[in-house]
C-alpha cells in the first residue's frame, strides 16, 4: 500500500487525467523519435549502398570504353599493312577508320620515337611520345595498360593513352590516345542527387575527367587525405573532418589501374526539418493533450459531484431522480442510483411488511406449538416421553420454517416440501414412491402439509410399512373433479403395504389429530383414514386454492 501511495498520491481527478495525458503523449513522442532515428539510419545505409552501386556502374562504363580501345589496338596490330611495314597505308587506313571515334593512333619504336600519329599527316616530323613512363611500364609488363592523364605534346590537351606492346620491328608498340574531354562525355551526374559529383582517377590519383559541381579539371590531384582509404575494390568513404556532411563512393575498374569516385552531400535538410517538426509537434501534442485532459477532468469532476449529491440525498432516505450528464456511463450510474433509491424505499416498505408478517406468523407458530404441547402433555406418561414427542414435532416444524426462510416466505414447490420432510428418514427413502405434478405451495400450506407428512412418515417408521425392509409406501396427488363444487380439488394419497398387520388404535393421539382434523381444517377439505390390515391408507381431498400460491 505504501508503494501504491507513493506512485498514486491523493490528488484530484484533473491531476490524474493531466498526468495520464502526459504519460501517454511522452512515450508516443519518444517512440516517434526512435522511429525517426531508425529511419535516418536506414536512409544512411541505403544511401551508402546506392553510392557504392553508382560508383560501380560508372566504373563499368569506363571499363567498356577502355576495353573497346584495347580491342581496337589488337585488331590494328594484326593488320597486313603493319606486318608488311607499309606505315603510310596503315596510317591512311587507321585515320579513316577512327575519324568518327575521337581516337588517335600512334606507332612508336622501343625508344618512344613516334613513327606515325594520326593526328598529323603521314610524313610530318614527329618527336618522342610525351608519356615515356607509361610506354616503359607497358613494355615491361607485356600487357595492355592505360596511362595516367598527361598534357599531350602534339595536341596540347589533357589526354590519356592505352598502350599495346608488340613483338616487332620497327613498331614496338601501338598507342591509342584520346582527349580527356572526349572521355568526359561518358561521365555524367544524371541520376545522382543534386550537388553530387563524379570523377575518374588514374593510378597516381589525378583526375582524368570529372563532372558535377566539384568542377575538377583533368590533371588535378584528388584529395590526398582520401586516396589512401580507397584500397578495396569498391566501398564508401565517410569522414566528418574531411568531408563534412558528405559521402563518397568508389570502385576499382576491373583489370585497369583507374578508379571511379562519386561524392556529394548527405540529404540532411529533410531529416533536420523532420526533427524540427517532431519537436514542435511533440510539444504541441503534449500541450493539446494536457488541455484536453483538463477539459475532460473539469467535465468529469462536475459529473462526479452531481452523482455524489445524488448519493448523499439517497443516504438521507430520499427517492432521487437521475441527473442528465454528458457522460453516458455517469448517466447509467445516476439511473442505477435512482433505481436503487426507489428499490430501497420499496425494501424498507417490504421490511416493515415482513416485520408485521413475522409477528403474525410467530403468533401462529406459538399458538400451534402451544396446542401441540397441550395435546402431547395429555398423552405423555412421563417427562421423557413428552420431551421426545415435542422435539420430534418441532423438528418437522423447523424443516418447514427453514425451507420457507430460504425462499423468503414466498412459497415452496410441493416436490421440495416432500423431499425435505422425508430426508428425516434416509434409511426408508428407497421404500417410498412419490408421483404427481409439481406446483408452488403457499407458506401456510408448507407448514401444515409438512406437519401431516412428518406425522405419517414417523408413524410408518414406528409401526407401519417403513418399519420393515420389505414395506412400501406410495404417496401421490392429482386433480379431481367435483361437479357440485366450482373450486378445483386435489387428492393426496398416502398408501402403505407390505408392513406389519395394522389395527385401528383404541384411542386417538396427537398424530391422528394432525393427519386428520388439523389437515382437514387447514386445507378446507376432507380427510379419510383407513386402518387396513395390509397397511394404512390416508386420503386428503382439499381445495387447490388453499394450497397453491397464486
Structure at a glance:
The chain is α+β, with helices and mostly antiparallel strands. It contains 13 helices and 18 strands.
Provide an overview of this structure.
- The chain is an alpha+beta fold and 550 residues long.
- It is 49% helix and 18% strand.
- It has helices at 2-7, 13-77, 80-83, 87-97, 132-141, 180-183, 268-315, 328-379, 383-406, 414-422, 443-462, 510-522, 544-547; strands at 104-108, 114-117, 145-146, 150-151, 158-165, 173-179, 197-201, 207-211, 234-237, 246-252, 259-265, 412-413, 432-435, 440-441, 472-480, 489-497, 526-532, 535-543.
- Strands 1, 2, 3, 4, 5 and 6 form a six-stranded antiparallel beta sheet that branches. A five-stranded antiparallel beta sheet has the order 8-7-11-10-9. Strands 13-15-16-18-17 form a five-stranded mixed beta sheet.
- Strand 5 (158-165) and strand 6 (173-179) form a beta hairpin.
- It is rod-shaped, with a radius of gyration of 59 Å.
- The two termini are 55 Å apart.
- 30% of the residues are buried.
- The mean pLDDT is 81.
The value of Rg in angstroms is 59 Å
Q: Please give the number of β-strands.
A: 18
Number of helices: 13
* Basic shape: rod-shaped
Main beta-sheet strand count, sense and barrel state: 6 strands, antiparallel
Identify low-pLDDT runs: none
Mean pLDDT over the full residue set = 81
> Could you say which structural class the secondary elements and strand pairing correspond to?
alpha+beta
Tell me the distance between the termini.
55 Å
Helix content: 40-55%
Report the portion of residues in β strands: 15-25%
Amino acid at each position: 500500500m505504501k508503494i501504491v501511495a507513493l506512485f498514486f498520491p491523493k490528488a484530484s481527478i484533473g491531476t490524474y487525467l493531466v498526468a495520464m495525458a502526459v504519460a501517454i503523449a511522452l512515450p508516443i513522442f519518444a517512440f516517434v523519435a526512435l522511429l525517426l532515428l531508425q529511419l535516418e539510419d536506414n536512409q544512411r545505409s541505403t544511401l551508402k549502398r546506392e553510392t557504392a552501386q553508382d560508383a560501380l556502374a560508372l566504373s563499368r562504363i569506363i571499363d567498356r570504353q577502355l576495353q573497346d580501345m584495347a580491342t581496337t589496338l589488337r585488331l590494328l596490330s594484326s593488320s597486313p599493312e603493319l606486318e608488311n611495314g607499309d606505315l603510310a597505308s596503315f596510317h591512311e587506313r587507321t585515320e579513316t577508320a577512327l575519324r568518327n571515334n575521337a581516337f588517335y593512333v600512334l606507332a612508336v619504336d622501343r625508344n618512344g620515337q613516334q613513327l606515325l600519329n594520326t593526328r598529323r599527316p603521314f610524313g610530318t616530323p614527329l618527336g618522342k611520345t610525351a608519356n615515356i613512363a607509361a610506354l616503359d611500364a607497358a613494355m615491361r609488363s607485356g600487357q595492355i595498360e592505360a596511362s595516367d592523364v598527361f598534357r599531350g605534346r602534339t595536341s596540347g590537351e589533357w589526354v590519356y593513352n592505352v598502350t599495346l606492346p608488340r613483338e616487332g620491328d620497327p613498331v614496338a608498340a601501338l598507342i591509342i590516345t584520346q582527349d580527356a574531354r572526349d572521355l568526359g562525355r561518358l561521365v555524367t551526374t544524371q541520376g545522382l542527387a543534386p550537388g553530387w559529383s563524379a570523377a575518374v582517377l588514374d593510378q597516381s590519383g589525378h583526375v582524368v575527367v570529372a563532372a558535377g559541381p566539384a568542377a575538377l579539371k583533368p590533371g588535378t590531384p584528388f584529395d590526398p587525405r582520401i586516396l589512401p582509404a580507397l584500397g578495396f575494390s569498391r566501398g564508401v568513404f565517410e569522414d566528418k573532418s574531411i568531408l563534412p556532411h558528405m559521402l563518397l563512393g568508389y570502385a576499382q575498374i576491373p583489370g585497369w589501374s583507374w578508379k571511379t569516385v562519386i561524392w556529394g552531400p548527405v540529404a540532411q535538410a529533410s531529416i533536420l526539418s523532420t526533427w524540427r517538426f517532431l519537436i514542435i509537434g511533440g510539444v504541441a501534442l503534449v500541450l493539446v493533450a494536457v488541455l484536453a485532459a483538463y477539459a475532460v477532468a473539469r467535465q468529469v469532476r462536475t459529473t462526479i459531484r452531481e452523482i455524489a449529491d445524488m448519493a448523499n440525498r439517497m443516504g438521507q432516505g430520499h427517492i432521487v431522480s437521475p441527473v442528465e450528464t454528458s457522460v453516458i456511463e455517469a448517466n447509467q450510474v445516476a439511473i442505477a442510483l435512482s433505481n436503487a433509491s426507489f428499490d430501497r424505499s420499496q425494501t424498507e416498505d417490504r421490511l416493515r411488511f415482513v416485520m408485521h408478517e413475522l409477528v403474525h406468523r410467530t403468533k401462529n407458530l406459538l399458538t400451534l406449538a402451544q396446542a401441540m404441547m397441550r395435546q402431547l402433555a395429555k398423552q405423555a406418561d412421563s417427562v421423557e416421553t413428552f420431551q421426545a414427542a415435542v422435539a420430534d414435532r418441532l423438528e418437522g416444524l423447523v424443516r418447514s420454517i427453514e425451507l420457507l426462510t430460504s425462499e423468503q416466505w414466498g412459497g415452496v414447490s410441493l416436490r421440495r416440501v416432500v423431499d425435505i420432510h422425508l430426508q428425516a428418514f434416509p434409511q426408508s427413502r428407497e421404500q417410498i414412491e412419490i408421483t404427481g405434478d409439481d406446483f408452488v405451495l403457499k407458506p401456510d400450506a408448507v407448514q401444515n402439509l409438512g406437519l401431516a407428512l412428518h406425522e405419517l412418515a414417523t408413524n410408518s417408521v414406528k409401526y407401519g410399512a417403513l418399519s420393515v425392509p420389505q414395506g412400501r409406501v406410495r404417496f401421490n396427488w392429482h386433480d379431481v373433479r367435483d361437479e357440485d363444487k366450482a373450486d378445483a380439488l386435489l387428492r393426496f394419497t398416502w398408501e402403505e403395504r407390505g408392513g406389519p398387520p395394522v389395527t385401528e388404535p383404541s384411542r386417538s393421539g396427537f398424530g391422528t389429530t394432525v393427519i386428520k382434523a388439523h389437515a382437514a381444517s387447514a386445507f378446507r377439505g376432507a380427510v379419510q383414514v383407513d386402518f387396513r390390515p395390509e397397511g394404512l391408507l390416508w386420503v386428503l381431498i382439499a381445495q387447490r386454492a388453499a394450497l397453491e400460491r397464486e
